[in-house]
Design the sequence.
């Protein structure tokens, strides 16, 4: 009687404990999933006059403490506004190759009459670019300024730590494996040479914005690529940016002039993949469709940096 008296309660206690533990794991998994980072935010989607929404968006950004340093309209129905602020510049200054994270990109895109306002996720970028600070304050400022409906760009998203070591697949480059476009005698010489090459639009590349980090010899330059080959912004975006919520804020690409007199660019195999991590390798709307783009982008940016082309390159998306 003694044993049978306690057996049922103990069994029931164990069963309840197991249920509570399973519930805890489920909730924990949901929290982790919710915390995963995605490349972009949708601020709003509405009807209206495209040009007026662009103007209103710029006014909101200025009122929200952001400095507009460039604009780019790569194709009809798309306008990209490049912004920075003191927090972004300060964080970039504290990071070795921080220039890539010194700006954020805001896009206004007309998608079949629906005007989408979207922006890059500062925290996603900060982790992917291995920034000193993770820019949660900048993310909050953009959300408060423009609005926030949802994050997007990856179905599952990534924990921040995973982004720090991100590469698309085996054999693909990491963040710290950029393309070295050209080498110059000094930082000042590099700035002068790149400025001249961009003025001539060498490689079909022109300047969208230029930001020199205060107190640091590092300049990031955003560029438009319009050559009639696989470096062309429009050609690439037609292949990779096809989902309901557009990722127009992927553009523009950047070149980074470093204090060592070298001009760098993130490898296109990394730069495209980090913003389109769910893109398949083959099939419709895949990396196969832009297989020649990494090589073409590197060539275009090399010319735009005042560099010379190599006789051979291995810049395609490899299987």
Sequence:
């Amino acid at each position: 009687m003694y044993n049978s008296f306690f057996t049922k309660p103990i069994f029931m206690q164990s069963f309840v404990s197991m249920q509570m533990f399973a519930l805890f794991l489920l909730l924990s998994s949901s929290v982790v999933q919710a915390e995963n980072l995605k490349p972009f935010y949708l601020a709003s989607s509405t009807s209206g006059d495209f040009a007026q929404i662009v103007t209103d968006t710029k006014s909101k950004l200025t009122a929200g403490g952001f400095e507009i340093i460039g604009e780019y309209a790569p194709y009809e129905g798309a306008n990209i506004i490049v912004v920075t602020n003191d927090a972004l510049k300060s964080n970039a200054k504290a990071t070795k190759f921080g220039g890539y994270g010194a700006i954020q990109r805001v896009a206004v895109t007309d998608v079949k009459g629906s005007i989408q306002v979207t922006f890059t996720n500062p925290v996603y970028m900060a982790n992917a670019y291995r920034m000193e600070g993770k820019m949660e304050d900048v993310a909050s400022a953009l959300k408060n300024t423009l609005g926030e409906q949802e994050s997007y760009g990856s179905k599952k998203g990534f924990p921040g730590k995973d982004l720090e070591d991100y590469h698309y697949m085996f054999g693909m480059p990491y963040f710290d494996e950029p393309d070295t476009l050209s080498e110059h005698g000094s930082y000042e010489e590099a700035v002068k040479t790149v400025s001249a090459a961009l003025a001539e639009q060498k490689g079909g590349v022109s300047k969208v914005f230029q930001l020199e980090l205060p107190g640091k010899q590092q300049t990031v330059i955003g560029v438009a690529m319009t050559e009639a080959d696989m470096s062309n912004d429009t050609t690439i975006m037609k292949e990779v940016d096809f989902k309901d919520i557009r990722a127009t804020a992927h553009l523009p690409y950047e070149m980074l002039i470093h204090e060592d007199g070298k001009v760098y660019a993130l490898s296109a195999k990394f730069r495209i993949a980090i913003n389109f991590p769910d893109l398949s390798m083959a099939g419709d709307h895949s990396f196969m469709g832009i297989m020649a783009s990494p090589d073409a982008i590197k060539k275009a940016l090399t010319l735009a940096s005042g560099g010379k082309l190599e006789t051979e390159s291995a810049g395609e998306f490899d299987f």
User: Anything to note?
Assistant: The chain has one domain: 40-304. The chain has ten helices and eleven strands. The CA atoms of residues 192 and 312 lie 27 Å apart.
